[in-house]
Amino acid sequence: MKIIVVGAGILGVSVTRSLAMAGAEVTVLDRWAPGGGTTASTFAWVNANRKPGAEYFRLNTEGMSEHSRLAGVLPGPQAFRRSGSLHLADGLDEPDLTRNVERLRASGYPARWVGRDEARRLAGDVRIPAATTAIAHFPSEGHVLPGVLLDNLVADARRHGATLGVGEVVGVEDVTGGAVVTLADGTRHRADRVVLATGRWTRALAAGSGYDVPMTTEVRTGSPIVGLLGFVRSPAVDLRCVVHSRRLNLRPDGDGRSVVQALDLNRRVDPSAGASPDIAAEVGARFAELVDVPGPAEIDLRVSVRSMPADGMTMAGPVSDGSNIHVLVTHSGITLGPLLGRLVATELVTGTPDGSLDTFRPTRFAGTRPPAGELRGPARLGEQ
């Protein structure tokens, strides 16, 4: 079976590797090097913490388990760290955090309350804010070093025979017995199946080919899909787990580096201009408040644009009944990438649908349109 995967982010590379391991003849095409899109600007927290709905929660818990399994078999440097996460609540956040902990515990998800001293030991060079009234620890969660994971997946995909090519795909179409992709230079490639793993560009690419893939795509100030990430190069921080607080979230990024985000500042970010000087100064000040190391912070701020299906849920499956073109889009790309890659690859190679993905088929939108304006950006403690 010959399969073309369009998009070399975490989803595209994951499905490419799994297809190659299953014996398919697979080529992945991207206009950039692997990871040049959304994967390069992600908080990379592996969790099922605030995933709405029983099926989406289940899928994300399975995604967490897949990372542990993959870490034991994927060659290369370790990319997944089961570091746990801490949520530091103040008086305003505590009731909501309490409800979340109770809900997760009822589902069997590991969650416990810890005191300040234990939280400090778990977190490393972190000051627990004086306003903190409750601290929850989620020990089964973790984080990924996205660049390391992507390099490992690419290398393993190539070891199993996958081909990685550079090319801008501008069109896809169903043909008898297969599908065709068209590149910007007019070149056409035929395959038995095509997988669109093109993130936030999926809707436009599909629409240009006559397929409707409902997504939230408006990139503007205040959009729920626009966010800001800070990559801290110095000072070096002994950060041992993912930390969420009202004013700043942090995760380790290897070798003393860290990644930060301030959810309440996202609505002020102009995606066409990047972070303004006042936003940059605010992020730096919050980092200095929360991290117990000396020296001014050197932070590279990047605008991130999330891949968001119109209802917020993952899409995995053919664009329409009987189509040879499949879509793979999710907001939880890091948590779900390896799992979705394996499940979708198995479906394609065997021709047998996986029932665990039934809720997430793109065809759920057939004949309907999700109400506009319902999705909002992450704002509460522990949201992404």
- Count of individual beta strands: 22
The average pLDDT score comes to: 95
Helix run count:
8
Radius of gyration: 21 Å
What is the N-to-C succession of helices and strands? EHEEHEEHEHEEHEEEEEHEEEEEHEEEEH
Please describe what this structure looks like:
This protein has 384 residues and is an alpha+beta fold. Helix content is 27%, strand content 25%. The protein has helices spanning 10-21, 54-71, 94-106, 116-123, 146-159, 202-207, 277-290, 333-350; strands at residues 2-6, 25-30, 45-46, 80-81, 85-89, 112-113, 134-138, 142-144, 163-166, 169-175, 178-183, 188-191, 193-196, 215-216, 226-234, 242-244, 249-252, 258-261, 298-305, 308-309, 315-318, 325-329. A hairpin with a 6-residue loop joins strand 21 and strand 22 (325-329). The longest helix has 18 residues, at 54-71.
Layout: helices, strands, pairs:
Layout: E1 2-6, H1 10-21, E2 25-30, E3 45-46, H2 54-71, E4 80-81, E5 85-89, H3 94-106, E6 112-113, H4 116-123, E7 134-138, E8 142-144, H5 146-159, E9 163-166, E10 169-175, E11 178-183, E12 188-191, E13 193-196, H6 202-207, E14 215-216, E15 226-234, E16 242-244, E17 249-252, E18 258-261, H7 277-290, E19 298-305, E20 308-309, E21 315-318, E22 325-329, H8 333-350
Parallel strand pairs: 1-2, 1-13, 2-9, 5-16, 13-22
Antiparallel strand pairs: 3-8, 4-8, 5-7, 6-7, 10-11, 11-12, 14-20, 15-18, 15-19, 16-17, 17-18, 21-22
Helix pairs in contact: 1-5, 1-8, 2-8
